[in-house]
Design brief:
single chain; about 600 residues; two-stranded antiparallel ribbon; about 35% helix; disordered N terminus
């Protein structure tokens, strides 16, 4: 049956070539001389694959087999599934499941029990409104102290004013925003309240599809692309009554902070760039351009910009949030999560977007506890050597059992496993892009172009070996995770790699500030943010959120505002950008 499914030419070759039996010293020379007339031994190719152990006879055999057998199949598969870029269709059936314990799947219907913000007063100016939390803004709306349309106008004004300086916004969705805000006000006027996101403006990283608006993926190769699909996460937010005001910067093809319109800046120190491909969501949230935003992380793209820009962010358990309609780097690593002003806001957003996406094979209904109801005094929380000592002290004062901790594992190649997994998967999704030489137009040639060219020669065997190494790492982390959660540096690359390979959640929280390096003036108001991460096993997002909420209940680092209007005397904006941000109308179609 094997031969029947192959092209006839391949069948003839395979049958004839194997009929003489195993190659050995007696017949190798005969085959070698015969093959030399048709092929030259490509030794450098075997060296690139670390396969130089084959003798010349076997190398020629492999080359002929690749030409007659492999390449027709490769080309057939490309024609079948690789004519479009972005990985939006035909996902791999090799599905990663991050769960550690066998659980019976069930539909998650219980919503979190949100705290009521009593005594919320209407601020006197728009800036104070802009820096309120999602839950506080929700109380203003619910009390009818402000309308969603009025709130939307405030954030649209800030987007237009500050985004050219921060280079954090790709498209302002003004017409859609007012349409959704008006609908939110009408629903509320009828006495129906959809929850804490009802009428709240927000932004989406521009790898998330919204009909009638460009979804650029941050790349000049795709800057005019319109994907007429409602991404799952957008559908969930729309059903929660949230109002989309902007498509925010993604680094080009979700790699770092460089995009076709510039490079996104850190509002706390605009001489710095935001890092990470969720650059726009982090920078815009930090600067009060949106109350919250949705970013994505494959390896570090939420945690790094959140750390740099000083916002509270959640990278959820892998599979917690559906990814239909979102550009894919790696089906087994990609995650969507909220960037907000507080951990309580992250909980509110997660509650709205979590759950099984029927078109995302990796998504699932995760039975999370309520982060607002967790008894943290029953938790044992470890702290690593690089943990923020203030966080440790605050949680200890709150009754948490704090213990020294090290997450031990023997796998020493987590960073290499991440690279093989991410780069090969990304190349599968952008195969046509590379083959048509569009990578020559990429905004930063030392990023995806270099990595994906290298990925072209990673063998399937070595990719699978990397996945086996990943499985070993997960098992070791599971066995050594002897606490309910642990605290450590959110920007440590090893933790970022291990956390993403395992699929564990982390919440990034601001914990303070320090002076910038080489400050132009002692009076500068620019600062470097200090953050830490709280990590937990998969499916324990409620634990990290509960701990972060407890910490933020008695601190105010997360309430500070970056100096985007006044960076201090004897200081100035370095190399101020001048590009304008397009305000798009709904496409007439």
């Amino acid at each position: 049956m094997f031969y029947k499914i192959l092209p006839q030419s391949t069948w003839v070759y395979s049958r004839n070539f194997t009929s003489s039996g195993k190659l050995g010293p007696k017949n190798c020379g005969e085959h070698l001389e015969q093959a030399k007339n048709e092929f030259t031994v490509c030794k450098c190719g075997f060296n690139m694959l670390d396969a130089s152990f084959f003798n010349d006879c076997k190398k020629l055999e492999i080359q002929k087999g690749a030409k007659d057998f492999n390449i027709p199949i490769i080309r057939s598969n490309r024609k079948l599934v690789a004519t479009e870029n972005g990985g939006l269709r035909d996902p791999s059936p090799l599905v990663f499941n991050s769960v550690w314990k066998s659980q019976v799947a069930k539909r998650v219907t219980d919503k979190f029990n949100y705290p009521v913000c009593f005594g919320i007063q209407m601020p006197k100016n728009d800036e104070d409104i802009a820096f309120m939390s999602v839950l506080e803004l929700g109380q203003l709306l619910k009390a009818k102290l402000i309308t969603s349309e009025e709130l939307t106008q405030i954030f649209l004004n800030r987007l237009k004013r500050y985004s050219p300086v921060l280079e954090s916004v790709i498209t302002i969705t003004e017409e859609l925003a007012f349409q959704q805000a008006k609908e939110a006000d009408q629903v509320l006027a009828k006495g129906k309240y959809l929850g804490p996101l009802h009428g709240i403006p927000y932004g989406l990283k521009d790898i998330i599809a919204v009909p009638d608006y460009p979804t650029t993926w941050g790349s000049k190769s795709f800057k005019d692309q319109v994907i007429d699909v409602e991404a799952w996460v957008y559908k969930r937010l729309k059903s929660a009554g949230a109002v989309l005001v902007a498509k925010l910067v993604s680094g080009s093809l979700a790699y770092d902070d460089i995009w076709f319109g510039g490079r996104t800046r850190n509002p706390w120190n605009i001489e710095e760039f935001s890092t990470g491909s969720s650059a726009g969501p982090a920078s815009s949230t930090s600067a009060g351009l949106v109350p919250f935003a949705i970013g994505s992380e494959t390896v570090g793209s939420i945690t790094y910009p959140a750390t740099r820009c000083g916002v509270t962010a959640l990278r959820p358990t892998f599979g917690a949030v559906g990814r239909t309609g979102v550009m894919s780097i790696s089906e087994s690593l990609d995650k969507l999560g909220p960037l907000c002003r507080s951990a309580a806001d992250c909980a509110a957003v997660l509650d709205a977007i979590r759950g099984k996406d029927p078109d995302d094979l990796s998504s699932r209904d995760i039975m999370l506890g309520d982060p607002f109801s967790v008894d943290i005094t029953k938790l044992t929380v470890g702290y690593l050597e690089d943990a923020d000592k203030e966080v440790v002290g605050v949680l200890k004062s709150k009754g948490v059992n704090m213990v020294p901790f090290n997450l031990n594992y023997t796998v020493d190649s987590a960073q290499g496993i991440v690279s093989f997994t991410m780069d090969v998967d990304m190349l599968a999704h952008f195969d046509e892009w590379q083959r048509s030489n569009q990578d020559d137009e990429f905004e930063a040639q030392d990023q995806w172009p270099l990595e994906l060219r290298r990925a072209r020669v990673i063998s399937a065997v070595d990719y699978i070996q990397a996945q086996r190494g990943r499985s070993k790492l997960i098992q070791e982390v599971k066995e050594n995770f002897t606490v309910d959660a642990f605290i450590g540096d959110s920007g440590d690359w090893e933790k970022v790699c291990v956390g993403n390979l395992v699929g564990m959640p982390v919440v990034v929280i601001p914990t303070g500030f320090k002076k910038i390096s080489n400050a132009p003036s002692d009076d500068t108001r620019r600062k470097t943010t200090i953050t830490t991460g709280i990590y937990a096993p998969p499916d324990h997002d409620h634990v990290v959120l509960a701990l972060a909420i407890a910490y933020q209940s008695v601190t105010n680092h997360h309430k500070q505002r970056p100096p985007i209007d006044n960076i201090g005397p004897n200081d100035s904006i370095p190399n101020p950008p001048t590009s304008a941000v397009p305000v798009r109308q709904l496409r007439d179609c």
